[in-house]
Design goal:
This protein has 14 helices and 13 strands.
């Protein structure tokens, strides 16, 4: 019998999901992936063409929850202090006062993350990994809800800086939304004929509800056999001849946590192999670097992960 706290958390997920779907049409799987990263305690990178709804999806999730939300538009002239904050000398009190930057929030949307310089991108590393930042030697912690959603355009390279491997590894998932079906696009036109539905969106849950959801995800059961299955998948990326850099142990942790979130979303209190397989590509692929010969032949990290999934025996 499923515990009451799991059922309650499932209800919270359904509320958030239904609220998002009032605005985002035809993206049920993308919403499921986004919420798996959110509930699993990770961060998400949305990579897709302009106009596919990346920013709208992120804003809709934030507006569905009664919590702090801020947005940063990354540009080439953005400095780390513009994100984290800075100490400013107060001549009247003869001391330095810390002015906190926009990173001090619970849900942070970073638009076009690859438009800022590597120096500015690195300002996020400590925050995303440890939920804290350091300003002039003083450490400031974040709420445990802290969640980063970043967007980037994969086809435009002018004025952009590719995210380094250390930055990519901080994201639990990377995925694309893609274009919706024609009927769903017609529904979008209808919904936005007189205005945008996001303008009337109201929060459906609060911070406490979300924390209970995240706590319930941690309590989802995963067997030792499936833990070994996860490690076998990730370890296989380090042994492939066509992969120059395989996935780190952080990938294993992200795969376990997001799979547990998917189990809860399905109303189950245990993880199945299907949950692991569902998120393996978005969790692992962006962490891999293919060798030069594989890249020239057109092979992708996604193909490598799919081949690994097909080759490794599924626990029964």
């Amino acid at each position: 019998m499923i515990p009451d706290e799991i059922l309650s958390a499932y209800g919270t997920y359904q509320k958030i999901c239904n609220t998002i779907e009032k605005v985002i049409k035809g993206q049920s799987h993308a919403i499921r992936l986004l919420l798996s990263g959110f509930a699993g305690g990770g961060h998400v990178l949305l990579e897709d063409y302009p106009g596919t709804g990346k920013t709208t999806l992120a804003k809709t999730l934030a507006l569905s929850i009664d919590t702090d939300f801020k947005r940063i538009q990354f540009t080439p002239d953005l400095l780390p202090s513009d994100i984290i904050g800075v100490s400013i000398f107060n001549p009247e009190e003869k001391c330095f006062t810390v002015h906190k930057g926009p990173i001090f929030t619970n849900i942070l949307l970073i638009d076009e993350i690859n438009r800022a310089s590597p120096r500015t991108q690195s300002a996020l590393l400590e925050a995303m990994a440890e939920r804290q930042v350091s300003i002039d030697g003083t450490v400031f912690g974040f709420h445990s809800l802290f969640f980063v959603i970043a967007t980037q355009n994969p086809v435009e390279s002018s004025g952009t800086y590719p995210l380094p491997e250390a930055q990519m590894d901080r994201f639990a998932l990377r995925f694309s939304l893609g274009y919706v079906e024609p009927d769903e696009e017609v529904a979008i036109l209808t919904d936005q004929n007189m205005g945008h539905p996001i303008e009337t969106l109201a929060p459906c849950v609060n911070t406490d509800d979300v924390m209970l959801l995240k706590d319930a995800v941690r309590k989802i059961y995963i067997s030792d056999e499936l833990k070994h299955y996860i490690v076998d998948i990730v370890n296989a990326t380090r042994k492939r001849a066509d992969v120059q850099l395989g996935a780190s142990p952080r990938a294993s942790l992200s795969l376990m946590k997001t799979a547990k979130a998917l189990a809860l979303f399905d109303g189950q209190d245990f993880v199945s192999p299907d949950h692991i397989q569902e998120v393996a590509v978005p969790v692992i692929a962006h962490r891999l670097i293919m060798d030069s010969q594989a890249r020239f032949s057109g092979r992708t990290p996604e193909q490598a992960v799919e081949e690994i999934l097909a080759a490794i025996a599924v626990p029964t």
